[in-house]
Every structure is written in structure tokens, then in C-alpha cells.
Predict the 3D structure of the following.
Amino acid sequence: MFSYWYQAQQKSTPAAEQPEHYAFLTALYEQDKAKPLPRLESVRKNTALKSGPFELTSGYAEMMLGNGATIQLNAPVKIELLAGDHILLHEGNIRVTMPVTKRGLNISTAKKGLFIANTLNKNSQLNRLDHKRTLTNIYWNTPSAATFDINAKGQVQPTNQPIVKITEDYYPVVEHADYQQNTISHIARNSITIDRLRLPSVDSPKLVASIIYHSDVAAEIYLDLGIELGEPISEMKVNVSSGSGVINLDIPVNSDTLINDKMVVDATMFDTRDLSPIDVDQMAIVDAARPVKEDIDLLTNVNTGFETGDFSDWQLSWQSKGSIDVTKDAAKDGNYGLQINTHSGPADFNLAPSLLPTGFMHPNKRYKLSFDLKRVDGHNSWAGGYAHLSSYINGQYQQTPQGPWLGGSSYYQWMHIEKEILGKNWPAEGTNLHFAFRTPGQEWYMDNIRFVQVRPKPNLLNQWYMNFEPGVMPPNLQVHLGNEKKPSRAYVSKEAALRGKFGLVADAIQGELRFTITPAAFKQQQLKINTDYQLSYDLKVIEGQASLFHQPNTGGWFPTTGWISGTPANGSTVMIDKNGVKSTSSANKKRVKVIIPAAKISHNEDFSLTFILAEGALAYIDFITFAPVK
């Protein structure tokens, strides 16, 4: 029995032509004291509207509101309809179906404060948070409507398949006119200027960042300064008063932060009340105090070209049974090279550990091993070998991923081999550089071994993408989710942090996930033509196997490169299991590198890049960089 019935005169709003929309249900809890939120009591007392109470004591009823939303009631339910599409739920449970419309629906419950339901077109700019402690319970896309159940206790459950299950670590954007009116003013404007100050020693320059701001209100500001390579070099929280002011911050500078005699500093300010960015990526180019080498040679004064005519500085491994000799025939450059054959067994050798610099290995720094190699045995069988760094940590053997450098049959000309290695947190001494030729019946010439610490190249992506700080989706990252039958999701979370505090969760377990770095994400939207670029990012596979594609807007599919387990399928896919490279138990995080050739950089079109994660994997992604290849 329904004691009072209301039926809106206006019919349901038809679905928009755009098939995919985002739907949000935002709970503004009473205990959130950080801003003047409308509590349940104030909503009831201050609306000055005639309330329409309803009570369903038995059976089923349906109510249609003026904005097209449908309310389904199953007895027993006590509900009150207020003006402005506002529902007050006293007892029981209701089901709400939101059409694809930009008009919102407000729901108050007895146990919690105000809920705001809203649907947005997927092309809306979701680049701001209303409040970092506002918890969004539902986030999905649907072709026509979003449906959820809510009870008087404030418990919410979506009935159509949710694409993202929101956690406390992730606060997506909520757009709603009524809610915006309750938001206190943000910093109105600011400018950032950066100048350089030399110290007496030219080896120890420093920067002085002067942040000139104007604020309408007193606020706490989070300031993050970083250089182009992406590592934050300074971060702080400061309290600013209303009006204008200046924040001065000293930034230490060392050789690692200098790029081609210059240093590019990104400064990002965030209002800590809602983590909204303020003028993201203001940049200044600062002259370095002294020139810097491209790379740091870690084998200075080592017999890397074998021009001494002997095997000095190197030593055979205990398991080596093959032949390793210094000969003139094996030289590519100079007079001598290394001749290797495995007719009698494996041929392994390593550099004497004492010849590597003390303390050279650092986590997250990049190193490159290179050499010239030529096969000379005349056979057509599979040929290959590997190399790695190794060390003992607390009695446990550790090594970097090895990865084969060859995998074909005929390689009878000189090849230049390069392999990048991501640094580890290893002891200052005892690191071993090891080469291994294990396939029987092969013969090689080897020359010009080089091992360097790679200097960082300028990252052309805005700083937001480097580490997904301060914990929200980058404003120019466009996510393409799956559908109801094959849902996928992407969100920023602390659990996904591979560096820093936050990372991106890419969930394609049930359906394909795509996300695009749009042109606005690049510091220079028109990239230089006739230049190859390298896309790099940290990847950790949590579940399944990650099949990764990378597609520029100019066309083409590009595989990952480097030491990753699995073989590219048709040159476009690399498979990585949850343990990463199987040859080492510590390789559960991989630095993925993809070369985008110059032919795909258009001279008359802004560049964008789409990541495609095929169905069947859950992975974490962090620290995305895009840099020119020199």
C-alpha cells in the first residue's frame, strides 16, 4: 500500500547520441569538516520547500522524476521528495536509474550525508577534484543509463557492471553545479620564476626557485619541483596567507641533474585541500655551471678493446670449458679482439670485480652495456649468448635480467649490440660483469666492450605523467574502457606505486584497456621531425600475462624492446608473466622501452600515443617518459 503518490509530468530525458558516459555517485559525509558541506539537518531546515513524504508499506512502486531518473521502491520504504530532484531516504532500500543526462540527482540518507549522482559525457575534462576526502562509490560507463541500489544506511551497490571499484586511494572528478557552490575559493593565479645562483665552487651550483603567488584565501600549498628526467629534486608543503607573496626554495644541483649544459625545471603547485593543480609545469631553462658528458664511462683504463694483446683485466669463469683468446683476426677496430668458441663447452668470462667503480650501482639509474660481435663458425643453427651484472646481498645471489642478444641463424657480419640495465640497490663493492656463450659448436669475434651510466635525456611529457603524483589521473590522459560484457578499468592508487607514492592500475583481466596520452600532455605539441623517440615506463604484472601494444596517432604498432621474457608475436607483442623475467626472482618490475621512429612524427599534426593492454592482465604502470633518441 502506497500512502501518497507523486508522478512527474515531464517524461524521461532521452539517451544522448554518444553511447558512452561516465556516471558518478559522490558521498559527502557529515564527518567531513574540511569545508562547509550541507549536513542532513541543514538540508531539511534550510530548503524552505514543501516536502512530499511517501511510505510504501507493501508491494512495489516506481517513481519518475523531472530529470528522467527512475526510483524503484520495494516495501517497506519511507522516502521524502524535495524540490530540485532531491530525495530523502528515511528507511528501506531504493533502486535509482540515471539516464544519460548532465542533470544530477541528490539523495540524502538517515545515516550519512548528501549523495550526488551525476552522469557525464566521456569527453568531459575530468581534471579536477572537488575534495580529496570525498569518496566516490561508483564509476562506470553505460550506453543509456546507470543503475544503483542505496539504502538508508548509505550503503551503495551498482547493479550494472562497475568498471572501476573506487578505493580510498583514488578520488576521481565530480562535476555538479550545486556542489561547486559549496567549494571554497582556490588559488586564483600564480606565476613561477626560477633563477640560478652560483656558489664559490663550480661543482656545486644550486637553484633558487622563487614562487610568486596570489591567493584569495589562506591555504596549504604542496610544491613539487623536478627536472626533466622525472625524478623529483625538491618537494615541500607551505602555508600561504591570502593576498600576494613569494616562496623561495633552494634546490641542490649535481651532475646528474644537468642535461646538455642546461637544466629544465618543472614546478607544480597543488592545493592540498583538493589536490587541484595550479599552473602545472611552469618551466625555466637554467644554464649549467659546467659542461657535462653524455654518459659516464664505468670502464675507464680497462682493457675493453684488448689492445694490450692479452686478456688482462678479464678472467675466465669457473664453469668455462670453451676457448677464449685475444687474436688479431678478431679485431673490428685496432689491432686485437676477442675470439670465442664453444666447441669444447661453454665459454664464460667476467671483468675482475675490483675494476668496476666503487658504489657505481644506484637504484633506478640506467646503465648501458655495448660491444661489437660477429659470428664466424659458418653454421646456420640458432646462435646466441647473454650478459648480466650480479652481486651477493646478505649471502643471496642477485643478478640483473640477462636476455639473449641474438636469436637467429645467420649473423656473419659485425653487429653493434646494446643492452640497457636498470640499476639495483646493491652493495658498493662486489658487482660482477659476466658474459656467457653456452650453445655448443659456435665461434665469435668480440671487440670494443663498453659499460656506461646513461645520462638522462629530456622528458617531453609533463611532470604529472612521470610518477602520477599527487595521486589523481593526469588531466590529458584519455582512458578508453571496455564494455559491459568485457569491462576494464584504470585508476591511480598507492598500491601501484613503483616509484614515489602513486602509480597507475591497469586492469584488463576481463576486457581490453586503452589509454591515450593526448597532444596536450607534451611540453612541445609539435615534435621535431627526423628524430626517433623512446617511450619508457615501469611495468609490474600482477596477474595474467601483459600483451602490450603502442600506437601513435600517425599509425603503426610498436613492440617493446630490451630484456623482456617472451618473444614478440609478429613483431608487435611482448608477453610478460607476473614474475617478470624468469631468469631472476627479483625482476618483477620491468622498464619497458619502445622506439617510435622518426617516420611516425608528423610535421603538420600534433602527436598522441595510445597504450593498448590486451585482455587477460592486471598490471601497474609508473614513471612514463618520452624522450628523443640521439
